[in-house]
Structures are given as C-alpha cells and as structure tokens.
Specification:
Helix 2 crosses helix 3. Strands 1, 2, 3, 4, 5, 6, 7 and 8 form an eight-stranded antiparallel sheet that branches. It contains four helices and eight strands; from the N terminus they run H-H-H-E-E-E-E-H-E-E-E-E.
C-alpha cells in the first residue's frame, strides 16, 4: 500500500473508505469527497414575487436599490408637501384637474344698499335684479357655515346683461376681494372688471374659506341717483 493510499484520512461519504486529507475523489469509488455547504434556508418572504426573481438571480442588490429609491422618493414627496410652496403647487394641480361647483352662502350682508336693491339680490340667481351700492367703498359679504376650497369668483356687473340697459346704470370696474379662512387668515385680491355686460371671473385657490367680501373701489356711469349695481355674485368651490 503506497503512502497516497494510507487509510488515515476522512471516510468517503459514499462507501466509507478512508482517504488521505486533501483528496478530491474517493480512492475506491471515485465519489467526490468535498461537498458544497448547503445554503441556509431563505425566509418565506424571499420566495414570494417580486422577491423570488431576485433570489433566482443570486443577488438582492437590485431589490435593495429599488426599495432605497422608493424610500428616498417618498421622503422627498413628504418634504415637498410640507413646504408652503410645495403645498401650493399640489393644491393648484388639484384645482386644475378637479371639478367645480357653485356654493351658496348661508348669509349675505351689505355695508349699505340703495332702496329696493338689497344684498340678497346679488345671490338670487337673477341678473335683472341687483345689489345697489350707494357709493364706492360699500361692500357685500358672503359667509359660509362650512370651510371650502375657493377656486373662483364670478361677478355680473351692472343693472342688466342687456347692453342697452347695462349702459343706463352705474357699474363697478374694480373691486377688492377680502377672503377669510377658518384660521382667521385674510387673503386680499384685486378684481378688475371690463366695462361690458356679462360674467367676469377671477380664478383663486384658497383653502378653508369661510367668508368672501366684495369691496367696490371704482365704477363707470355714476351719476345722481345711480347706485353702483352688481347684478350677481357667484362663488365656486372645488369638488
């Protein structure tokens, strides 16, 4: 028996014959002596799609990169929405993509009105009746019982939408909108009105609105006994 065949090594896993350390195959049956270590069993979630494909490829590097990218994107979105500018852009996009609906005030009041032309005439759905303001600086206030997202204000200036009748009365050409939100914050916008009959719109984007006040600042066609006429005011919310 040669030195290479001395039976003082580990036994063959197939036939039990001793072999010298370092041999790769059994000297008797030629079975492999060095077997690969069995990998530890994978957790159950690593065998479920989409993780299963990563296991088959032999590496979870791509999966880890995907999860990390999603986490970073989510973090950036959260920071973006927490910033005032980010919230403004987000709400503005929702305004453009969402629908709108007219909302009726729970109460409408005026700082002053001409006889026979009360504040309620500006929100009755009729343009042949109007709120008559005795002078510039007069205001019309619409209040609401529930906060809403204000997306637009429509004003019908003048005593009528008919051109001939429109010219016979005084009509506003500029007004300030004083918009109050539920937290008490006041937003001011200027609305310039062209001197013609029909609806004129100011697009807004203000959340949690509880009141809208229209203050008349300039007008055309003023004269003795001619109140500044506002035929209708319509308030629109986002749906």
């Amino acid at each position: 028996m040669t030195k290479d065949e001395e039976p003082d090594g580990p036994p063959c896993p197939a036939c039990g014959t001793p072999n010298l350390p370092g041999r790769r195959f059994c000297r008797r049956c030629a079975a492999p002596l060095q077997t690969k270590e069995q990998a530890a069993p994978l957790p159950w979630w690593r065998t479920v799609w989409p993780f299963r494909r990563r296991v088959r490829s032999g590496s979870g590097r791509a999966l880890r990169r995907t999860v990390l990218a999603l986490a970073v994107a989510g973090l950036l979105c959260a920071v973006f929405l927490l910033l005032p500018a980010g919230r403004y852009v987000f709400e503005d996009v929702r305004d453009k993509l969402g629908g709108t609906a007219e909302i009726s005030p729970t109460e409408v009041t005026a700082s002053a009105h001409a006889p026979g032309h009360p504040a309620s005439a500006a929100v009755d759905g009729l343009t042949d009746k109007y709120w008559g303001a005795p002078s510039l600086g007069s205001s019309l206030t619409c209040t609401f019982d529930k906060p809403f997202r204000l997306v637009g204000v429509v004003v019908y200036p003048g005593v009528s939408t008919e051109p001939e009748e429109f010219r016979q009365g005084a009509r506003p050409t500029r007004a300030d909108l004083v918009i109050t939100s539920a937290d008490g914050k006041v937003h001011e916008k200027t609305m310039t009105l062209t001197d013609k009959p029909g609806r004129q719109t100011l697009r807004t984007g203000i959340s949690d609105v509880v009141s809208v006040r229209l203050v008349l600042r300039a007008a055309s066609g003023q004269g003795e006994g001619r109140p500044v006429a506002v035929g209708e005011v319509e308030i629109f919310k986002r749906t």
